[in-house]
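Sample 3 of the quickstart, ligand adenosine monophosphate:
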Amino acid sequence: MTNPLYDTLFGRYAGQDSVFLHLPDGRTWTHAAFVNLAAQYAGLLNAFGLTAGDRLAVQIPKSPEALAVYAACVQAGIVFLPLNTAYTPDEVSYFVENSGAGVVLCDPAREGALRPIADQFGAQLETLGDEGNGTFADKATRMPAVHPTVERTSDDLAAFLYTSGTTGRSKGAMLTQENLLSNARTLTAAWHFTADDVLLHALPIFHTHGLFVGTNITLLAGGQMVFLPKFDIDALLTHMPKSTTMMGVPTFYTRLLSDPRFTKELTAHMRLFISGSAPLLAETHVQFEKRTGHRILERYGMTETNMNTSNPYDGERRAGTVGFPLSGTEVKITDSKSGTTLPDGEIGQIEVRGPNVFKGYWQMPEKTAEELRDDGFFITGDLGRFDEDGYLHIVGRNKDLIISGGYNIYPKEIELLLDEVDGVMESAVIGVPHADFGETVVAILVPENGAQLDLDAVASEIKPSLARFKQPQKLVTLSELPRNTMGKVQKNALRAQFADSVPA
Ligand code: MLC
Ligand code: AMP
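Result:
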């Protein structure tokens, strides 16, 4: 093999007229059409001057063409760097600068906003829209539908996925071909994916869940996807009867349950529902089984590690747990101070090791050293315990993180912006329970002596720098923040005080 990830997921489909994608408008894409387009894109990226190891930053709407950009990068050995479509230009600017991306690919609608950023950092800007339109698509039509696959080894980089940090600065998690391939192989086997499967795909393709877990497994198994542009309850209900599997964040499941059209009959053709990226309430699990007869299979993963644990396909899927370590992945619970392994049953930090674990953070050796031990164990920042039957329970987080509808939000990033606002002395950002998103963002502000804060004005001021999903749903003022004897802000106390402050 010359390029393990490309050969295994994409190259094998050259010339094959089997169906790969179903679109909501009834159109289909064959595997051959998909890999041909990817080859044209790979050729074009090379023609732009990008070669193996260079970075391509993409902020584009979900479409088959967008997925083909990923395949093209793998074929050309270019590092694929997908970005949340909700990020503002301010946010995108950081990723372009930090990654040193040579080309930025964006939605035609954002060309005006992103061109100055691309120019500033010496990157070429091209566009790709949700209908396969744009400058990139136009230029690609002139490229041949075959392209020489660049030789890569398993240890070469395939993608950078940025993940925020507790310092407020995002870190580029460097994922190798082996990280992605080993996890796809493990999950395909663990979840019994085959060529008969049709995955109902409504997740975004700029994160691990929708990009790697969903698509890599489908490609490896030779299955098909109903490829929806986003979560849309009507579309999900329409396409579920011809699907066999679905992957979603817990919000998908609570929204389905709140719709009376979602019935047992509608799920008759489905064999598996998988949940992850945020905690699934045991109550949701129970209600789902009552309504459909299906027990949701919950698994646990991260950007840096792909998937680590999963409830069993056969055997008890235990509500409120994330199951057992996946084959080839070691999971241990350690004391956060000493790092020693704790006996089963005790709560500690979750550490993982295996071929799924990333190579480190791009150009941040100190951050890498803090979280990735010399012996290969990665300190996840999650807290958990194994029960007497070996199921892993996630009981909390050692990191200051909010997960809203499956998107991670680091309070520090928002606090740094709030602290800059005139009249704000300091701030604390917390997550509070939310029926739809699981958690949502509340900002607590301490005004400077004598200052009167206009909370709407504060919200407007930070708006340009923050994606909509990160913006506080509520801002409140307090005369001071609760602190412990060490002077550390007691976020637990704030979370208790403001628990009911945001209605669903
Ligand atoms: C959208 N909005 C959100 C939001 N998503 N607000 C908070 N949290 C979210 N997650 C806001 C929008 O800005 C908008 O605000 C309003 O909600 C409606 O927008 P929308 O586009 O219609 O939202 P909707 O389609 O309803 O999206 C909700 C969602 C989506 C839950 C379907 O967020 C989603 O697909 N989440 C999946 C995230 C994911 O893939 N995570 C995996 C990470 S990988 P307004 O005010 O303008 O109306 C990972 C590793 C692992 O964690 O283990 O998998
Ligand atoms: P991300 O950085 O987006 O990859 O998010 C990873 C984080 O999501 C993990 O560290 C966990 O905190 C959380 N997570 C993922 N899956 C689950 C799950 N099934 N239950 C609870 N938390 C989860």
